User: Which sequence fits this backbone?
């Protein structure tokens, strides 16, 4: 299985990660072959190939590591301050 080796899946989102372009091409080929065998197909317009940084489930993932998506932090920072104890 590819899960947790080079593939993360959440509902209908599939993230394939690799250290090199060559490795990524092989991982991509394996995953697409598996999907094809199961008669599962993706929407090419929603695909992004060979990305060095991606936003995935509220995180930014890159070769540098995983960080919280800055837009999520900004949304929290922009919350209005409470005006009473019950808020």
Assistant:
């Amino acid at each position: 299985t590819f899960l947790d080796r080079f593939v993360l899946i959440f509902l209908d989102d599939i993230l394939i990660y690799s250290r090199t372009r060559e490795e990524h091409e092989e991982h991509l080929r394996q995953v697409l072959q598996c999907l094809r065998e199961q008669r599962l197909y993706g929407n090419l317009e929603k695909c992004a190939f060979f990305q060095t940084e991606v936003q995935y489930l509220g995180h930014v993932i890159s070769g540098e590591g995983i960080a919280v998506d800055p837009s999520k932090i900004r949304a929290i920072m922009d919350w209005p301050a409470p005006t009473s104890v019950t808020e």
About this structure: The chain has a mean pLDDT of 91. The longest strand covers residues 7-10. Strands lie at 7-10, 13-16, 53-56, 59-62, 65-68. The first helix runs from residue 21 to 37.
